[in-house]
Amino acid sequence: MPETSRVQYSPKDVDVEISEIGDGIYRIAGFDNTFGITYNQFLVNDEKPMLVHTGPIGMYTKVEEKIKEIIPLQKLTYVAFLHFESDEWGGMALLDSAHARLVCSDLSSKLNLTGWYNVPADHISFWDNETLKTGKRQFRFIMTPHVHHWDSMMIFEETTKSLFPSDLFIQPGNNKPVISDDLSESMINLYKGVGIFSSEIPVRRTTKRLMDLSPEMVYPMHGSCIDKSMFSKYTDALIKNNFAYSGVLLGRTLETIS
Ligand SMILES: [Fe+2]
Ligand SMILES: [Fe+2]
After folding, report:
1. Are 95 and 54 in contact (CB under 8 A)?
2. Per-residue pLDDT, 96
3. DSSP code per residue over 3-36
4. Which residues surround ligand 2, an ion (CB under 5 A)?
5. Measured in angstroms, how far is the CA atom of residue 166 from the centroid of ligand 2?
6. Who is most buried in 25, 66, 103, 242, counting CB within 10 A?
7. String of b and e for 52-78 (b: at least 16 CB within 10 Å)?
8. Under-70 pLDDT residues of the chain
9. What pLDDT score was predicted for residue 256?
10. For position 9, what pLDDT does the model report?
11. CA–centroid distance, residue 39 to ligand 1 (Å)
């Protein structure tokens, strides 16, 4: 029997750090040696604070400790996951907050959160361009189907022009919380080696829509945050280079693809 994926995908022994990136927006990040990437969670503080992804279950206890440095856990109101994958909300079962509601896309709700035994059904889902006010902030939900997954969405916090794109604009390595180098080539090579996009077409359509939003700061789930001065390096790279799946998945070649 091969080792279970659960062991491989649950990085428990990582150091988790917190840093304030924008006003009241915190990056809680841990570097996982297995894949050579960071897992970043984002706490957006407000009257009703939101956590954008939980990280995988093995890391979540440490993530929760960092949340408690900023707010009492009972104040956490929303936990958003941007597609159905364990690093997006695998820690949710550990969440010790009576008031936290799961937030997801309508597709995640219809496809993945209903119809399973023992999956928490209590959640709020959003369709394209719908918004959620959490106090002084307003979150806009952007449906991005087939940018990684069928149910994928992204979130744009409008008052600070903060973009949470999940697995778009990710970079490998353990770098500074906000990147000042151009790692767009590493991003493209990472996508080629992991095979998370089936086609460049929906990714490029979404990239153009995100450029029109003119984000001040981009908060990817893996790698460093990207401020507006560097954003065009990453958007250009996605528009000019090919990076879609070509028979390689998580670094392994699928020999049956010709
Ligand atoms: Fe993902
Ligand atoms: Fe991810």
Report:
1. yes
2. 67
3. PPHHHHT---S--EEEEEEETTEEEEEEEETTTT
4. 87, 167, 221
5. 6
6. 103
7. bbbbbbbbbebbbebbeebbebebbbb
8. 1-12, 94-96, 98, 119-121, 257-258
9. 72
10. 53
11. 11
Residue with tokens 């915190």: 26
pLDDT confidence of residue 6? 46
Give me the pLDDT at residue 76, please. Answer: 94
Per-residue pLDDT, 31: 95
Using DSSP's 3-state secondary structure scheme, residue 138 falls into: strand
Are the beta carbons of 197 and 252 closer than 8 angstroms? Answer: no
Report how far ligand 1's centroid is from the alpha carbon of 89 (Å).
Answer: 11
Question: For position 52, what pLDDT does the model report?
Answer: 97
CA 39 – ligand 2 centroid, Å = 7
Whether 77 and 64 have beta carbons less than 8 Å apart is answered as no
CB contact at 8 A, 162 and 143: no
pLDDT of 14 reads 86
For the domain made up of 5-253, give the CATH fold: Metallo-beta-lactamase; Chain A (3.60.15)
